[in-house]
Here is the input.
Amino acid sequence: MSRPFPTQSQLLLPVMETIAEMGGSAEPSVVIDAVAERLGIPDGIKNDFRTIDTGKWGLRKRSAFRQCLHWVRMTAVTAGLISRTERGRWTLTDKGKDSLVTCQPGLILIVYETPDGQAVWADAITTAGAVADNTVNLLFTSPPYPILNGRKYGTFTEAEIVELIVRCARGWRRALMDDGSLVINTRDCWLPKAASGGTVRSLWQEKLLLALCEDVKLYFADRLWWRNPSHLPDNPWVTVKKCRCNCDVESLLWLSKGPNPRANNQNILADAAPSTIQAYVRKARRGALNHVGPSTHNNLFEEQIGAVMAGQSLKVIPRNLLEFSNGDTHHTLTHELKELGLPRHDAMMPVKLAEHIIRFLTVKGDLVWDPFFGSGTTGVAAEKLGRRWIGSDRSLAHLLGSALRFENTTFEPPGQPG
Ligand SMILES: C[S@@+](CC[C@H](N)C(=O)[O-])C[C@H]1O[C@@H](n2cnc3c(N)ncnc32)[C@H](O)[C@@H]1O
Here is the structure.
């Protein structure tokens, strides 16, 4: 006998996903209508009211579809996925939010492997539920931004992208080691003119940060800034209306699973600028070292001044503004991609930026994961530095293109498991 609507167990996931999309809580009638729309349930079935025995509440006039969703809700309440206490609303519990990540059905295919890495074709939500607990030292990624004029890999609204990252982050947190870190590259975006009426910024990064700390329970370890000196002005407010400046910095939001993430700034010491060297020399001449604070601090200055006086190059603690250009790094790759008929990724980050973060937050042999792998930059940097890596992306074309950036790849075309 054909069924007019899905069974209860088939409905559990769509019901929970619908509530999650409504911010985690909504009135029952609103959820039911949205689930019906999601599943393409015709109005005739959704609104086919009949007198039904509802058990505890006796005979009631309800449509069989609505009644079925009420039973689904009861099943979810019993399993601890939907709150028992909130009346008049269906609200996901923390367990419910977590299980949305882990129960997501999805396809995971290893596209190629290197001695240290695996490139995987899968949606970020799916991989967030699939990587083993407490295994990842660093998750470094550059997710899609809310861009309204569209990139080749998709266009997301502000709410969609925050929801996607927060949903994934529940799984990412579980997969991170206790002293592991999560670094997310984000950038400022303008609000759509139709919505804001003017030229103003979106608060999507602030919303994301709050949700990651308050809902997902990650710590906000720090924020670094990446300046791309070769960034060209790219929006009409700057170039046509001329009412805003060219923005060439992006954020690197550094979050962690625990309050003391592993990090070592000695792994990323920077070359001192000439003005810093001159300042040391002036200090040495004035004999000012006796007055510069605690003794270890003095020792450091003494060592550095010794190095400068001996004509050696001076290394200093890195600043939180990183400058890496991505202007000219990928010409050879572009050529190879063209020959193979594969697309060039239009948001490749500089390998040196990924190297800097990986050096800072991991040691050799650690595992680094990028769930929005794109052209594979994180993997290239990790491999170069002797870290193991996992890269996943939902674009097969970009994954295939990324394989060109590695030597020693074992390549299995999808559909021909080895
Ligand atoms: C900003 S790009 C990453 C660029 C990368 N850092 C590089 O250097 O090439 C974002 C990537 O996320 C991928 N993506 C978008 N939505 C996704 C999703 N739901 N699951 C997995 N990947 C997704 C896109 O295919 C795109 O390659």
Remarks:
- The chain has 16 helices and 16 strands.
- The two ends are 41 Å apart (CA to CA).
- Confidence is low (pLDDT under 50) at residues 150-154, 413-418.
- The pocket of S-adenosylmethionine is lined by residues 123-124, 142-144, 153-154, 164, 345, 347-349, 372, 374-375, 377, 393-395, 398 (CB under 6 Å).
